[in-house]
Each structure stands twice: as C-alpha cells, then as structure tokens.
Amino acid sequence: MPFLLNTPDDQQAMLAAIGVGSLDELFAMVPADLRLKRDLAIPPALTEIELSAHMAALARANSPAGDQLCFLGGGCYDHFVPAVVDAIAGRAEFYTSYTPYQAEASQGNLQAFFEYQTLISRLTGMEVANASLYDGATAATEAVLMSISATARHRHVVTAASVHPEYRQTLAAYLKNLGVEISTVGTPGGAITPQDLFDAVRDDTACVLVQHPNFFGCLEDVERLAQIAHDKGAMFIVIADPISLGILKRPGDYDADIVVAEGQSLGIPMQFGGPFLGIMACRERLVRRMPGRIAGQTVDRRGKRCWVLTLQTREQHIRREKATSNICTNQGLLALRATVYLALVGPQGLREVAELNLRKAHYARERFASLERFEIVHARPTFKEFVVRDRQGQVENLLADLAARDIFAGVPLGRWYPELADCFLVAVTEKRSRQDIDTLVAALAQSNRKVMVAHA
Amino acid sequence: MRNIRALQPLFDLAKPGRRATRFPKSDVPEVPLTKLLPATAIAEQPPALPELAEPDVVRHFTNLSTLNMSVDTHFYPLGSCTMKHNPKRNERLASLPGMLDLHPYQPEETLQGMLALLYELQQMLGEIGGLPAVSLQPAAGAQGEFTSLLIASAYFRERGENRTKVLAPDSAHGTNPASAAVAGFTAVTVKSTPQGFVDLADLAAKLDHETAVFMITNPNTLGMFEPNIKRIAEMVHAVGGLLYLDGANMNAILGITRPGDFGADMMHFNCHKTFSGPHGSGGPGAGPIAVTSVLAPYLPAPLVVREDAGYRLDYDRPKSVGRVRSFFGNVGILVRAYCYIRSHGPDGLRRVSENAVLNANYLLARVKHIFPVPQGDRCMHEFVASAAKLKTDKDISAMDIAKRLLDYGFHAPTVYFPPIVREAMMIEPTETESKETLDAFAETLFRITEEPAELLHEAPHTTSISRPDEVRAARQPVMISPPPGSP
Predict the structure, then answer these.
(1) Residue of B480, B481, B486 to mutate when probing chain A, most A C-beta within 10 A
(2) Fewer CB within 10 Å, N side or C side of chain A?
(3) Do B427 and B320 have their domain in common?
(4) What are B79-109's pLDDT values in tens digits?
(5) CATH for B252
(6) Is A94 in Cβ contact with B68 (below 8 Å)?
C-alpha cells in the first residue's frame, strides 16, 4: 500500500502490545452484523505510474479554456497567476498544516492571515476582514445573515437580478427555512434603477445586496443605492470584483457596511469552479457578528509581537448552536495565494491590471458592436464583461462552433435569464491581446457566414 | 536557519518604487478613462498596498512557512482532523493543465474527462458510504451537514410534516448544533453515558414527532464505535426522523462497515481528512454528501449524470434544495480525493482503516498507564486521554502538555475536546505514521509528566514565540496592521 509504514513484524509487535491476536480483533466493537462481508465495489488500486497515465488520459479528454482563447467569466476568470504564487502556495509547511489551534507552532500561517486581512481591508476600504470564507456566494450569504442579526430585522432582504444568479440561489437556499423574504429588483437596463430600489426597501428590510460591477459587467450607481438603503436603516452590502478595485472607488468610500468578493481573480486557478476564496470585510462595529476565523495581533510572554486566532467566542467550536456561523474549515491556502498576489502586484500593478481589463473589454465591446449580427445589450458603462445578443438567436450553436475551434467566446445566459436566452456574457482579462480579440471577432464573423449559408 | 529580517511584517518590508509583477503595455487604443467610466466611479488612488520586489516577497513568505509545523515536517496527531500524509502525486495530477485550467461554464463537450472523473467519484463515494446518491457540491464538512439538513427539511415539507428539532450528542463537533441553527432548526443536546456512548434513555426522552434529524458521529469523537447504532437508527426511524452520519471519522471504517448499512440516511465525507486532501493551513476542504435513494431528489444541483452521448451536468432537479455555493464544488480537492481512492482500491482502503486503528490502539496501549483513557482499553482511529489526574496531582494541564510537546518536535493533540472529558487530549495518529514515531511520541509524553510543573507552565521554550496573550488579543483586538504613517 502506497503510504503505510507498518511492516508485518511491526504489526505483530503492535498487536502483542495491545493484547489482541489479529487486526480483525481490533474491530470487535463494530457489531458483526454490520460488518461489510465483501470488498468495496470500487476499481482496483493503481500505482503512481498507472494513475498518472489514467489522469493524463482524463485531462486530454478535456479542452481547458485557460489554455486557449478564454472569454469566459461570470464569477470565474482567466487572470494571470504569477509563478511566485504557485511557488509559495506549494510550500508544504503551508499546505500540509491546519487551522492554527497552536499559535506557537503556526506563526507563519497566522502572520500570513493577518497580512491577508490587512490587504483586504486596504483593498475594500473597510476596517476589518476575516481570514476567508468558502467562496463569493457563501460570503454574500453570510453577509446577509450578519445584517439580519445586526439589525434584528428578520423578515426581509433586498437584492437585484444583476447579482450573480448562483449567489442568489445560494442565498435563497440558506434563507428558505429562516422565514426571510427576498425581494429581487429587476434590472432590464443592466443595472438597478434607484427608484426601483427605493420602492423595494421597507422599514423592516435588513439589507440591500448589490454587485458592482454586476453580473452583466455593468457598474451600479452605488452611491445612490447606499443612500437609499441607509435611509431606511438597512445595511448596504457590496459584492466587489477585487481586480476592479485597482481603478474603482473602494466600497468603504461609498459607505458600504459589509463588502464581500470572490477572490479567485487574485492568483487562484479556475480549476472548474473551486476551491475559490470568499472574501469578507466589514465595519469594526460588526466584527463580533462576523463569521469565520480572524487572526489578531498580541504579544507573547516575553513581550514579543505575535499572532493568534482571536474573537473565537463567535465560533462554532466554542459557541455551538449560538455561533455566528457553522463554518470550520475555511480557504486558508487560497487566502495565502491572494496575499502573495496582492504583495506582488502592489498598488501600481493592481491599477494596471484593472486598466488593462477595462480597456481590452471595451475594445472587444466595440468590435462586437461593429458586427451586424450582434448587439450590445446594455448601454451602461461596463468594466471587464458585457452582454452580447445574437440577433440570430443561435447562442448555443455559435458557442459550440467556436469552442470546437478552441475559442471560448462567452457564457450563455438563458439558463438563468429566459429573457436573455439569445445572449451571452463576454469577459476580457489582461491575458487577452488585441490579436486574440480580433481572432475572436473574425471567428464570429466566419460563424456568421456559415449559419447564413445554412439558413439559405 | 530562520531569517528574522525577512519575517518583518510585509508592510515594513515595502518601499515606494519597488515592483514585482509587471503587466504588458496596453495594445488597444488608449481611450481616456473618463470616456469609459463615469468620473464619480473612479478612485483617485489605487488601494494602499505595499510596494515590494519579487525577492522580498519570496523570502518573506518562505521564511514565514518555516514557522509552521506541518504534516510534511512533523507528527501532527490533531484528533478529529486526520492529519495523514498528503501524497505528492495528487498535487501533481490535480495541477495538470487539463484539470486546472477548466472554466466552470465551458461547454460540457469540452469537459468530458473532468465529468467522467467526478461521476466516478460520486459512484465510489456512494459505495464507500453505502448511500447511493451523492452530491459533490458542499465546500466542507460543516456545509455538508447544513446541506443535508436542508434536504431533511425539504423532505419533511413535501410530506406535510413540520419537524423543528435536530438532535446531536453532547460529544458532537460544534459544527453539528451550529449547522442545525443555521438551517433553521432548534438544536437539542442528547447526553452521553460515562463511556461516551449515546444515552439511550435520554435519546428516547428527546425523540418525538418534532424530531427531524439525529446527527451522530460514528465512530464518535471519543474514537469509539457506537455499539447501539442499529438500535439508535431504529429509534430515530420509529418516530419518522432521519439519521445523519457526521463522516469526520470515516478513516476508521473504510471497507469495514458502511453508514448506509448501519442505518444512516444521510452523511458527509471530509475529503481533506479521509481522502488526504491537504489541509491548507485551514482549508480548502470538500464535504460531499451521500443520501438514500428516497432523499436523492432533494440533492443540490447540478449532479453529474452519464448518458449514451457522454457525461452531462443535470440541473433539471425540480425537488432540489437548490445550491449552497457557486459553481460545481471544491473540485481541486475532489480531484485529489479521486486520486487517493484510485491509488488504494478496495483492499488498500480497508488497510488504511486497519492501520489507522492499529496505530491508535498501539499508542493508547503505550500511554494509558499515565493518561487514563476514560472510555477503556480499545478505540478505533483515535482516543481521548485525560490529564485530569496530572492536573490534580502535579498541576500539569492538558494545555501544558500540548505546549511542551511542541518543544520536542511534535504537534499537539486536540485539547479540551470533546467537552465531556476533563483535561481532554484527543489523539489521532493516522495510518501514515510508523511504530518508531509512535514510540517516540509516547516516550516524550512520559518524559513531560516527569518535568517540573513550572517548566511546563512556561512551555513552549523553543518555538519562535512563547505563549501568546490571548486575553489581550480578544479584549483589545488588532486585526489589521495600522495604516502607513501612523505611530
């Protein structure tokens, strides 16, 4: 067996020390009638060589978008991951350790968490951040739960159709049993109309949850939306794109109460959707309601600066059913990746990458607009994504045709938005060159001809 | 050798003008920003991140890593966490570009290898658990618990039953009652007997027609297989409730017995424990769930299904509880779990459990004369020893022992859990340790008990810091570095 150390002699010596005659006897406390009397029906063991060949074959049966022309987004992006991020996250002292219950043996992890929290605080403009949650969707949901508890308004929350549909589905699943009603403001224009939000927020609304830039790539009018929420005593929760914060105002600047984000853009590979990084930052007054681990600075007995897990009385291992959340395992290694990424790019690098995303996406948007077959659906300003309508309504065929040519042109929207069944979402990151975008547009034009021929 | 200078806070290492990662110049037309974005949306300055050069970043984090104990460097018998060896092949194979660079919204035709892997993992977990319907979506064990409780409530809702209570033993992980509360149930605690088993009389008194679920950890957090598990399942089912198996301790029973066979209706796996996903300084984990075919319609969407034309993601699940996170799941960890299971096969998985149980019993036999083990002379994959007598006799606490172990190059066991044992030390050696390591650990424990209490109160002595002031950290919380320029 690949990872066992006990030799037959060891086993005999150990059994003798225990005072039993066989391995089987060790399992005497498992009632005989419950024992599995056959082998598990799973495939036989593979050696490392065999497993490597098998996995290589499975990998070859995929066509990884990240190795090709990837214009897919919708909450997971083909951003550049610097080599240093892999090198540091590949240090076994990080990835084979666990939650720092023994601070003295975990100062590396704790200091890294503290630095992560500091970077996230600066990125978002909030006073505090936790050491990570599962992903953007659960971070958004936990933020809503925080707002319900902090405002003691247990009946109603407001969000918008321009928030990632899977985040809203997650929120709905979490709130279903709690009797909290969710109002979803429609966004036919691609973003929330302040009047629509005003009409939706009630005196018993716990929070307004928005995404900025939103799922369609459009900017929301966050300053007015925050004002509307606060006028009714509701909290304002923003789902941010961390890369966009290289150029856009920080949520702290427009009075958000809680900021959450999907941190995948910060040095984390796409890996078919996870593990990713749930970022959460908030105002200091809310910290005792925040879920998840938090690293805090203190001193040791000799007065030396050091770090510990702090405010643990919020957590399930102390408070059980009264905890702020049930989270235990978090995304520490992904928080480390984000920390290293932000340390590498620095303020200027983050600004540059944000500008590159913005400019390239706008270039692509204009190129799409120049093709007769396509229409840019939303007139509002966008960051790195935009929605395109195929006037021929052939989205699935079109995307499949391009994928067969190793171009991943966009994410079809019909699954979540029936009214956008003829639309797809295009994302452009810093990894795409002008030539890549031109190649995409040329391929679309070709596909255009083909379908025309087919129709003729 | 540790480099103290490089361990300074990241922000102290920074200097204006330094750069690491640079991006190419824009190759698209330079449109003024204000033509692309409303002026009111644009920040005047980028966030105040530190400015560092690549060598600074590398040296800083590399040195930080040396301050950690880890499975690759130390024996790490942290009970309940199954800190087993993390195979390097899994790291390499999960990082193949054909696995790592997949976007979750790629067309399914371009994902057939990944979907085949995930489908096969669903099947294998169903077989290992004896519960045929599997969702790989939950991000961690606690989310698996929560998702299963949502499934229970959807099931009862459809049956027109209003059940409000979720029961769990007092020895349960804190996540059990916390998950119950988050899922909208009232958490009810069931007592344990002095041996650490479920108190059947107390269970009977608390089970009623408002009981939705009884959550049990089996083997339990004392490392004991619940002798009455079948009776417990019958009692729960007799009132119409469901039995949930917290799979944190599956490492003890792979191929030995199956939760579905001992009466569980739902369970989660901890892929980062049982199936060797690295613990990553706190995560990521992955907490797939398995349920009976009766409960299958309520599983989160999507599931991977196999059809003649190939593998497909099935979103069309009208009775589903919905989704509990974005995208498919913590796939990177699921791929490692897949590699682990395929590396072992049926015989190998059984031997994993046999050796995990052998190692734990051997260590128990070595230490029980000094540290009473309240539950007796046998255990499954872990055991809970008590330092209560040492505390009384010599003023040596479980915490003192934990801290002193660090000086000797061992990570500490889990201490003060489960709460039903005084001065608890929960020790889980795992199967990937040798007799020599276990002997050395046992001898070190004896040696520590003979050291002066004053020395132990001040331990650890050799780590990068001494005991931290946790009270100060909680009373005057400092959770971020002060802004630049502040005193």
Answers:
(1) B480
(2) C
(3) no
(4) 999 999 999 999 999 999 999 999 999 999 9
(5) 3.40.640.10
(6) yes
